[in-house]
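Hey,

The postdoc asked me to send both predictions to you directly instead of through the lab channel. I've kept everything plain text so nothing gets mangled by the mail client. Protein one:
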Amino acid sequence: MNTRYRALSANLELDYVRDTFLGPVAHRAQCQVQVATMTLRGCPALRLHVSPPIPAKLDCAHSVAFTWEGRSYRGVVGDHSKCGDGGLNLILELR
């Protein structure tokens, strides 16, 4: 895993989908997020650090989409972990 760039914290609108027994459920939330580009197994990826408060069920998200610095991003959540500051780290494999 190779992190290349860390942006300052930005207020982003995250669209995320989680899978349930009844099918996919879409959510949208405004969050304070730090975005870092990275390479994961030779492919482009992003690390998102979402600051508290964490939106409901974001830790169960299957995929996340958002617009950052005028560009749209969409990725599958490859990994997630809670942080000591109460935040959440998401690794997005970009599609």
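Protein two:
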Amino acid sequence: MRVKFLMMACVLGVATFAYGQAGTEMKNAADDTGKATDTAAKKTAHATKKAAVKTGDATETAAKDTGKATKTGAKDTGKATEKAADKTGDATKTAAKDTGHGIKKGTKAVGHGVKKGAEKTGDAVK
């Protein structure tokens, strides 16, 4: 019986030690998991910060490019408007000259007709 008791005591001692060892290993595994989670969180935060900075830089560059394109477009539009105004002014000037020339011709023709009519009237009166 004594041998049985000793064997039981040994088995119980080994089981207790095994449970204790398992508890320690579980605690160590939990600590390792916590450390890994902390490291992963820090790396993720760092990567997120870097991405945000790059996004901000890209947005700033895009805004500058858009501003330059808008400025260039405005200059081009101004030049085109100025050319169109010059052409309109030239066309108006030409039209005014042509109109003046037509009026001058018409006036001469009317004057000539009046003169002829006056001559005929003068002849008829004689």
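Summary for protein two, as requested: The helical segments are 2-125.

Thanks,
C.
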